[in-house]
Amino acid sequence: MRPPKHNPTKPHCFLTQRASNPEASRTNVLEETPCTWQPWLARTAPGPPQESLVRDETRISLPAKHSLTQTTLGQLRVAPRTSRSRLAATEPGREPRIFGGTASAAMQFPRPLRHPGGPELVFLTCVRCVCGVLQQSCHSPETIQPATITVPPSIRPSLMATIVMERIGRLFINLQQVQAMPQMLTEVAPSMPGTLRDTEVPGFFRERYIHAGYRPLHQGWRYYFLSLFQRHNETINVWTHLLGSVLVLVKFLQLAETVDFIHDAHAWPLLILLLSSLAYMACSTVAHLLAAKSEFYHYCFFFLDYVGVAQYQYGSAVAHFYYAVEPDYHRWVSSVFMPTATFLCCLSCLGCCYGKYRNHSLRVWVRKVGQVVPSAMAYAWDTSPVFHRLLLWPTSHSDDITAVASGVVGDPAISFHVGQVAFFLSSAFFFTNPLPERLFPGHCDFLGQGHQLFHIFLVICTLCQIQASHLDYLGRRPLYTQLHGEGGTAATIYLVQYGATQVVCICIAVFMARKVKRLLDCRDKSK
After folding, report:
1. C-alpha to C-alpha distance for 14 and 384, rounded to whole angstroms
2. pLDDT class of 252 with cuts at 50, 70, 90
3. Contact residues for 350 (Cβ-Cβ < 8 A; gap 6+)
4. Of 35, 39, 144, 492, whose CB neighbour count within 10 A is largest?
5. pLDDT in tens, 195-228
6. Which residue has the higher pLDDT, 3 or 473?
7. Which distant-in-sequence residues (6+ apart) come within 8 Å of 52 by Cβ?
8. Coil, strand or helix: which one is 16?
């Protein structure tokens, strides 16, 4: 039935209560009784009028059971906090007793109702009312002296049990959330399949002297991206060039603070070197990370790797010819150096892609010759200005030698040029020779492969090369402006050639990828 309307003239709050009459209980008739406080529950000093304290009145139907039920506690918990400030019950027909003052200025404390549900519910309700009043008083301009609650010994165990059960319920909810964390983490990062041995993968994935650590084929792309954090035989190869690209990027940002790469045309060769270095490291990282997807993607991603290598060769040629060249050598090769470097760059990309395409139809040494010879020719030609400068430096810079012997650096770029040559030759040695895994087959599946050392030495070589080119850009400006022109026309031409070379290398990679696609389709049809 609908609850009676609230009468604002009455200074009492009401609690809906089952009638003490058995007939009323059977007919489910509810009656209202004034709600006041019991003397032994709480005593407060005279305060503001009761009308200013009463914010709301709530009527709750108590069940006929003799214990606290889930429905009753749920009703208490969902009730508004302001409605919990006046919840109590009195027996019908008994007048409330007034302590100290008039009824409008003092709180009333009648005798409690002996409800069949027990005194625990009444006491718990009163405690919640007092807490609500205290909390409201903290936010109201009118202050009320805090009430002192005396808990009778007879209901202390029930109260403590209720509080403990409530705390246990909250803890249970927290434990459920903790137990759900592994499932959430599994959804974000599912469990990774284990690695395979060389006998469990196709032949085109196998590397000499590497017996384990191969990733399974035909997994989702998400697996191969997350394999960045998995232990397999390509992990170090991925991370060496990934960290190397980060180092080059940091160096790029540092140089951008002092070098005007936009308006200074003489800085464009250095910009080409930085971009090509980032390109080859990024392409190598992607190739070693994602090439295990399938046979087709294996070829495609390594073709992309060879495109990055070719771009790095062109960037090295531009930087060396523009900054490190000597006047005598410039007069000899000024008309043919960059066209030859561009041709060798494209030839290196074609040789590497074709060698990979004929990976298992040719002998190992034939494939290595097809890949190494064009790259070696490109490196020798691109670095020839540095070789000429290093050969002439002891005789033409005797003053610098004396300065170095006395502890004063004459040409700071020379030491970095020597470093880049030494580290590149070291990387070439480990690229052509599978050491040390050939000496310890099966023991270098994760760490200690020659290709990993090749990556490390090549990253150090690149950093030395960038530093040497930057020092030459700063210290040899009068020389290269005299050789290449004050307006930077040659640098503009080299920048355009860099874009054209990149397009040609990409076309070569796409052409070889189509050949691989046709070959795989023919093989599948023949099965």
Report:
1. 100
2. very high
3. 374, 508
4. 35
5. 999 999 998 888 989 999 999 999 999 999 999 9
6. 473
7. 142
8. strand
Q: Where are the alpha helices (DSSP H) in 320-449?
A: 327-333, 337-357, 364-382, 384-396, 398-405, 412-432
In 10 A of CB 451, how many CB atoms?
Answer: 20
Q: What is the mean pLDDT of the chain?
A: 76
Provide the pairing of β-strand 30-35 with 42-43. Answer: unpaired
Written as one letter, the residue type at 467 is Q
Summarised one tens digit per residue, pLDDT across range 361-374 is 777 677 777 788 89
CB 93 within 8 A of CB 147: no
Q: Give tens-digit pLDDT for 431-441.
A: 988 999 999 99
Lookup: tokens for 232? 């397999």
pTM of the complete model: 0.65
Q: How many helices (H) and strands (E) does the chain have?
A: 18, 6
Model pLDDT, residue 155: 67
| pLDDT of 401 over the 50 cut | no
Q: Counting beta carbons within 10 angstroms of the beta carbon of residue 33, is it exposed (0 to 12), middle (13 to 18) or buried (19 or more)?
A: buried
The answer to whether 11 and 50 are in contact (CB under 8 A) is: yes
The CATH 1.20.1070 domain(s) of the chain lie at 196-395+409-499
Report yes or no: 326 and 480 within 8 Å, Cβ to Cβ: no
Place of tokens 């009444």: 122
Q: Tokens representing 301?
A: 């991603």
The token pair that represents 198 in the structure block: 């060389």
Class of domain 196-395+409-499: mainly alpha
* DSSP conformation class of 120: H
Q: Is the pLDDT reported for residue 99 higher than 60?
A: no
Q: Report whether 66 contacts 128 (CB < 8 A).
A: no
Extract the tokens encoding 203: 């032949």
Dihedrals phi, psi of 209, to nearest 5 degrees: 70, 10
**What's the gap between Cα 158 and its chain centre?**
51
How far is Cα of residue 433 from the mean position of the Cα atoms in its chain?
A: 37
CA 353 – CA 321 distance, rounded (Å)? 27
Which residues partner with 17 through β-bridges? 31
Looking only at Cα atoms, what is the longest distance across the chain? 123
| Pairwise CA distance, residues 53 & 45, whole Å | 14
Do the beta carbons of residue 347 and residue 281 sit within 8 Å?
Answer: no
- Other Cβ atoms less than 10 A from the Cβ of 18: the count is 18
How far is residue 232 CA from its own chain's centroid?
Answer: 21
Residue with tokens 């284990």: 194
Q: How far is CA 413 from CA 68, 271, 358, 410, 475, in A?
A: 86, 18, 42, 9, 9
Q: Which two tokens stand for residue 336?
A: 């043919």
Instruction: Specify whether the CB–CB gap between 468 and 417 falls below 8 A.
Output: yes
- The answer to whether 220 touches 190, Cβ cutoff 8 Å, is no
Annotate 360-394 with b (16+ C-beta within 10 A) or e (fewer): eeeeeeebeebbbebbeebbebbbbbbebbeeebe
